[in-house]
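Reagents: none. Just compute today. Ribonuclease HII.
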Amino acid sequence: MAEYNALTSVLIAGVDEVGRGALFGPVVAAAVILSEDSIAELTRAGVKDSKKLTPGVRSRLAREIQAIAIDCKIGWASVREIDRFNILQATLLAMKRAISKLNPQPGLCLIDGNQKIPQLLIPQQTIIKGDSTSIVIAAASIVAKVWRDELITRLDAKYPQYDLKQNKGYGTAKHRQAIQEHGITSQHRQSFGCCQLSLPL
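Predicted 3D structure written out:
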C-alpha cells in the first residue's frame, strides 16, 4: 500500500466505486480522507482491496474506517441516470457527488481507474488498480461496497425472485434466468443488454 508524504499538509481523498458491472441498482462511490495515523492503523487492521476481503471482514473494516476517517461520504447515480448517461458517465457522477459532500474538502483526490472526473475543481490523480496500491482508495472501495451491498440486500425483500441477497445485482446465471422468467424491475438497467429483452414489472 502506498504511504503519503507526511511533510505535506494537503488532505488527500481516496475515491472508488462499486456496482459498475451490475444489472440492478445504482452505481455507488465513496470518498474517504484519512489522517497519517489512521492510515497506519487501518493498514494494521488489514484494509486492502474490498474484492479480496470476506463480507464479514469488509463490514467490520467499513465501521472502523468510518469511525476514524477525517471524513467519509457516499455518492451514487441512479438506474435512470445510468440508462440516460451510460455507466461510465454515471460512475464519474457518483464519484463527483461523494467528493462534493466531503468536509473539509481535500486538496487532492486519488481516483481508482484511468478516467478523470469531468469538471472537478479539485486536483485529481487517477491510479489504475488503485484499490490494490493505495490505502485511501482501498478504504473507499470497502465503504462503497458495504454500503451498496446493504442497499441491495434490503431491496431483496421487495424483489425476492432475483436472488439479490446473493448476487448483489450482478448478472449471475440465476439472476439472468429470473429476468427471463419475470421480466425486469424499475431498478434494472434497461441500457444493459440482457435487461432489454424483458418488460418492466
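Residues 135-156 form the longest helix (22 residues).
Action item: order primers for follow-up constructs.
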